[in-house]
Amino acid sequence: MKFECFLGRRRTARLFHSVLLLIFLHTAVHGRRKSRDGRNPQPRRTQPSPTYRDRAEATESFSLDFTAVEENMDNFMTQVKNLAQSLYPCSAQKLDYDMKLHFLENTSVTCNDGTPAGYYLKESKGSRRWLIFLEGGWYCFNKENCDSRYETMRRLMSSTQWPLTKTGTGILSPQPEENPHWWNANMVLIPYCSSDVWSGASARTDRSDYAFMGSLIIKEVVKDLLAKGLDNAKVLLLAGSSAGGTGVLLNVDQVAEQLVELGHTGVQVRGLSDSGWFLDNKQYRCTDCIDTISCAPTEAIKRGIQYWGGVVPERCKQAHEGEEWNCFFGYRVYPTLKSPVFVVQWLFDEAQLTVDNIHLTGQPVQEGQWRYIQNLGNELRNTLKDVPAMFAPACLSHEVITRNYWIDIQVKGTSLPRALHCWDRSLHNNSKNNKAPPRGCPVHLIDSCPWPHCNPTCPTIRDQFTGQEMNVIQFLMHMGFDVQKMAQQQGMDPSQLLGMLSSGS
């Protein structure tokens, strides 16, 4: 093992020196060319061979940008060191990939039960990119269901059971193979312990059993992080899933305004909302508003915003004065936001179907339920059509950006990490007054096929009773899908339709 580590260190050193030499040569040549005529040269381009071109188009490419290297050498060298270390197990053993728990310096900002709120942080020295992730986990909207939540899901209302470290996955992963674009950012995860969709601003009192301080927790985390390097950030991506995804929509402008007020005008604040774009639609079957699951989305939020002392973005509040609950629904709050936001939303979101009283049990769904599910997909498409940056697969699922399979999901041949990379590039270009998006780099991606899981890259579904994996056809049959009838509606033979489903067409 010692000999292998010795060889690994020698190889790593050679790699590192080679990259240094490459940068030196590039800088020298670049400087010499520039000094000849006083301007940047236009690089000569050669046409790739057909074989190479086909291979390049079939895989995603994240090329090295030497412009960025010249502008931020320290950051680039940090990435090279990390890459070199990750190439060999003996070097990788020395890396600490875990995010570590920090409690807020302002102890008056707390979880529901008065215990200290906090965050997990993995610093990436030299990187000027920060990712702050808001955790999800539903909510409660009155004393009765908050009491029940405290008994059954205490970690979502208290910090007493939080571990000292967490390992990031998906977009929070420090591993390039799992997180190709954001792996080297400073990673922050804020645990959800306020049960208020990150909107509350009310402390615990003698008359109130719980504090609801989600909005204030975000503010305090940002304040604490300024002393840990956020003050030198170039980009801050506020991301979140489920209730955290809605929390992004409610707080992204607040974070941007907070940094400006504190004098940090150079930080570009952006949002990434995953599975938080809920509809205030009519339930499939109306039920009494007893708990979060049975209550209609609008009624639950109307009660919750009063109970939490919830706050919403100022522009949305003005647009819906007296009915601020509207701001918890993506298609209503999004048009009022100033900060750029990328929306990730399954067209057949399991949480949305749950609150709409569509419960996918072992029995095939009825025809009315099937129509309702299809209509839900159409409604979501309509609310997303004017969102310029979004990724909406036709899948039955919930949350994705922190799943380790998030790199496998595609819409029209483009993966989610690739779409986010394209979005970053488009924002960078726009900041340089270049309004044209990068060619061949789509950021508005939505499936057009009409059924749940008609996209072949959807996450695997398992039968709830047998645990067996189901392919697309098995799943649709399980859902009560009538092949003969649907083929007739589409004007094709049943065998042709089955072939299209199998291939994901």
TrEMBL record:
<feature type="region of interest" description="Disordered">
    <location>
        <begin position="33"/>
        <end position="56"/>
    </location>
</feature>
<dbReference type="GO" id="GO:1990699">
    <property type="term" value="F:palmitoleyl hydrolase activity"/>
</dbReference>
<dbReference type="GO" id="GO:0090090">
    <property type="term" value="P:negative regulation of canonical Wnt signaling pathway"/>
</dbReference>
<dbReference type="InterPro" id="IPR004963">
    <property type="entry name" value="PAE/NOTUM"/>
</dbReference>
<dbReference type="Pfam" id="PF03283">
    <property type="entry name" value="PAE"/>
</dbReference>
<keyword id="KW-0732">Signal</keyword>
<feature type="signal peptide">
    <location>
        <begin position="1"/>
        <end position="31"/>
    </location>
</feature>
<comment type="similarity">
    <text>Belongs to the pectinacetylesterase family. Notum subfamily.</text>
</comment>
<protein>
    <recommendedName>
        <fullName>Notum</fullName>
    </recommendedName>
</protein>
